[in-house]
Amino acid sequence: MKRKALAALLAGIMAASMLAGCGSNKEASSGSDTKTENTDTAGSTDDVDFSGEDPQLEKKIKILTIWAEDNDNGIILNKICEDYKNNVNPNFDWEYEMVSSDNLQQKIATLTASNDLPDIFAYEAGAPLKKLIDADKLVNISEELEKIGVMDKLDESAVTLMKGLSGTDDLYDLPLGLNVEGFWYNKALFEQAGCEVPATWDEFEEVLEKLSAAGIQPITTGGADKWPATRLINAYAVRTMGNDVMTKTANGELDYTDEGLVAAADKISEWAEKGYFGEGVTTVDTGTADTMLTTGKAAILYTGSWYTQVLTDESQNPAGEDGIGFFNIPVADESVSSATSYSMNCGNILALDKSKYDEGTAWFLKYFCENIGNVAMEELGSIKGYTYDVSVDDMDPYTKLVLDELDKATEGFAWWEAKMDSETSKVAQDNVQTLLNGDMTGEEYMQSIQDVYDMNSK
Amino acid sequence: MKRVLANKKAIALFVLPAFVIYTVFVMLPVVWSLYYSLYSGSPGLDWEFVGIDNYISLFSDKNFLRALTVNCKYIIVVTTGQVGLGLVLALMFKFWLKRCKTIIRTLVFFPVVLPTVAVGQLFSKIYEIQPNYGLLNSFLDSIGLSNLVQPWIGQESTALWALCVMDIWVAMGFYSVIYYGALLDIPDDVIEAAKIDGCSGWSLFRRILLPLLRPIVITCLVFSFSGTVKMFESALALTNGGPGGATKSLSMYMYDVSFTYNKVGYGSVIAIVIFLICVGGSMLINRFDVKE
To answer: Domain residues for B230?
Structure first.
């Protein structure tokens, strides 16, 4: 009899826990129902006058990014939210969530599918963003910023770059960086090998040869992370075929297997074969490559201006304040791609979900655009693509160096995969390792990209 | 107790909750995948019915075939290595080791409790070549075999094998403990009787121990097989599938296809292939069991 009772009890518990499971499920689904209802009411900021005082609306926004709260842009975003709550709108609140950058696209894809995008989220410019624009998921930033009256807070070259990347007339994202990319070099090693900063591509190759002959590893790249290596192919391709070469291939005007592009891939493969990258370049990650330059284990590194974060950190940069220099990608033919055109980008950008956008978000957006430039300068000493009024004299030499380069830039071009869809881009990155190892020729490499492009454009 | 178990209602009451949960969390997703596999794109974004197109493109997909090959090689090598070396270790514990048994057993079992990512980091340091030689390369260098110094995980010819070594090292301790338990269960008088009959060494193992261990061997094979079919986290931690696609498994490719390329439909087809390999492999292993 006792056993029977026990059995009944156990069965009861089981059944109850199952019911509980169903119950919470129901709650969750009804939660998402209310969210979809919001869709209809949101997004109307037409009749609001943004010139006056902040009306201190009650608002909670959700921010999804790829930076920890105490790191990089995470610091800036949280600082701005905090300032906004403390100084302007006490009824404002925010929820900060982080995913690893590898999972960002997947996370956003899932949230898009369930109509549950966060109010503000970090994303990748170029093809991934274009997909969301086409699906009509994003706030038209230029329209809204005009309405709010803060369009002039955005750096013009950043705006041009971002519009170019999405191929739209309007802006659908906010910059979180204004980066130039190029070659950073270790001055001491250059001196040791008797090298000058190269201005043309031929001189550049001579420098590499000279360094190699002097027993110095000429160049390093984060082959394990793949993208730094494809940037090198891009560098040569752009200089020999023009700034818009990768746009042309993405539009189908030019094949990826074009002779010039094959030559660019072959160039990198040739460097690897000559041992310019040292042994096992595909096992070197970005962090290792970064410190190899500052510690004098390699003479040149291709990377972007975000590298100043490493350079200004004494523990990571034994080369000191004047130990590392920068030169733009050397020119092959001035008429094809000029010395003042730089590889530029706006880093990971921020986008706003259209269905959740309302007046409360708009007021926050206003505060955000007005203040981020200064906050970024004060907190990180970096340029984010917004106006700021911090004096140049207070900057460290590396930030100043980046600013000088930005001033020189007359034209910008994007990175290798910017216009590729996610599959093409993945193949281009995966196979660059095979190319560096010499298991693939330049032609096979470009063909593998062309194959995926053909398959997806069918 | 007998009365309870004879009652069909009682059995149903006990089995049903687990069965419902199993159906919801295991069977339903499989059926769901089947349904997904008939669509292109991902739910909410370009979600279109395409019939069996996804299945057709599977056969001409070079990347899929490559991932399949990599996965098969990995399964064969790692399963054999884990189960085989586990057995060797267990025999060593039982027959050869006289002293420090416990310490050695603990040491061998130790990697099992380490998180995979930590093991991946550890081995990437062991195999390191740039900027400094790792443990393996500096060892080779110091004993005068500097021509063998190479980027172990940075080249296609060695990356997969380097990964296999790591995964065998991690799990063999686990299997050795299982075997050791089974060996202890074999009565000493059986072994003694065999020895008196003139059976020793290889023949003792072949004719006495192995038949007695057979159920355990099969269990271990199933464990190891189902673990290696899933090949994902260790490859991700050590090589991230590279160089190129040299260590990219089916699950990694499925992940890429579903979540990076946003082709959940096609990803589901690959998931079904993995499911079929699991079912087929387990059935094959179990066939050894029913012979007698």
So the answer is: 61-290
CB nearest A11 (choices: B13, B151, B260): B13
Regarding whether A254 and A144 lie in a shared domain, the answer is no
CATH number at residue A80: 3.40.190.10
As for the ipTM of the complex, it is 0.84
Give the domain CATH number at B138. Answer: 1.10.3720.10
State which residues form the domain around A222. Answer: 181-344+410-457
Position B104 in a domain: yes
What's the gap between Cα B50 and its chain centre?
34
Distance CA(B247)–CA(B244), nearest Å, equals 8
Q: How far is B110 from chain A (nearest CA, A)?
A: 27
In a shared domain, residues A317 and A428: yes
Q: Does A80 share its domain with A156?
A: yes
The number of folded domains in chain B is 1
A105 shares contact with chain B (CB less than 8 Å): yes
pLDDT at A26: 35
Question: Which run of H or E residues covers position B11?
Answer: helix B8-22
SS3 category, B172: helix
How many domains are there within chain A? 2
Q: Which two tokens stand for residue A57?
A: 């609306």
Are B13 and A109 within 8 A, CB to CB? no
One domain for residues A205 and A89: no
CA separation for the pair A299, A319 (Å, rounded): 12
Q: Which of residues 193-232 of A touch B (CB under 8 A)?
A: 223-224, 226
Contact between residue A137 and residue A124 where contact means Cβ atoms under 8 Å apart: no
Measure in Å the smallest separation between the Cα of A107 and chain B Cα atoms.
8
In a domain, A143, yes or no: yes
Give a yes or no: residue B41 inside a domain: no
Chain A positions touching B154 (Cβ under 8 A) are 223, 280-283, 437
Q: Which of A282, A290, A294, A297 to mutate to test the interface with B (most CBs of B within 10 A)?
A: A282
Residue in chain A nearest B63 by alpha carbon = A427
Query: Which residue from B161, B151, B156 is spatially nearest to B124, judged by alpha carbons?
Result: B151
> How would you write the pLDDT of chain A (458 residues) with one tens digit per residue?
455 555 555 554 544 444 443 333 333 333 333 334 344 444 567 778 888 888 888 999 999 999 998 888 899 999 999 999 999 999 999 999 999 887 888 788 888 878 889 999 999 888 889 889 998 999 999 999 999 999 999 988 889 889 888 889 999 999 998 899 999 999 999 999 999 999 999 999 999 999 999 999 999 999 999 999 999 999 999 999 999 999 999 989 999 999 999 999 999 999 999 999 998 899 999 999 999 999 999 999 999 998 988 898 888 888 888 899 999 999 999 999 999 999 998 888 999 999 999 999 999 999 999 999 988 888 887 888 898 887 767 778 898 899 899 888 888 899 999 888 888 999 999 999 999 999 999 999 999 999 999 988 87
| 8 Å CB contact of B259 and A105 | yes
Residue A410: strand, helix, or coil: coil
Q: Give a yes or no: residue B19 inside a domain.
A: no
Tell me the DSSP string of B39-82: EEEETTEEEEE-TTHHHHHHHH-HHHHHHHHHHHHHHHHHHHHH
Contact across the interface for B17 and A226, Cβ inside 8 Å: no
Quick one: A157 and A187 in the same domain? no
The answer to whether residue B40 sits within a structural domain is: no
Is A73 found in the same domain as A158?
yes
Which amino acid is residue A171, in one-letter code? L
In a domain, A48, yes or no: no
Give a yes or no: residue A208 inside a domain: yes
Is residue A390 in some structural domain? no
**A-B interface: how many C-beta pairs under 8 angstroms?**
106
Token digits of residue A108: 């956003």
C-alpha torsion A48→A54→A56→A62, nearest 10: 80
Whether A226 and B10 lie within 8 Å, measured CB to CB: no
Residues A186 and A161 in one domain: no
Residue B20 and residue A18 in contact, taking contact as beta carbons nearer than 8 Å: yes
For residue A113, the distance in angstroms to the closest alpha carbon of chain B comes to: 4
Binding-site residues on chain B for chain A (CB distance < 8 A): 1, 4, 10, 13-14, 17, 20-21, 42-45, 124, 127-131, 149-151, 153-156, 240-245, 248, 256, 259-263
In terms of domains, do A193 and A339 share one?
A: yes
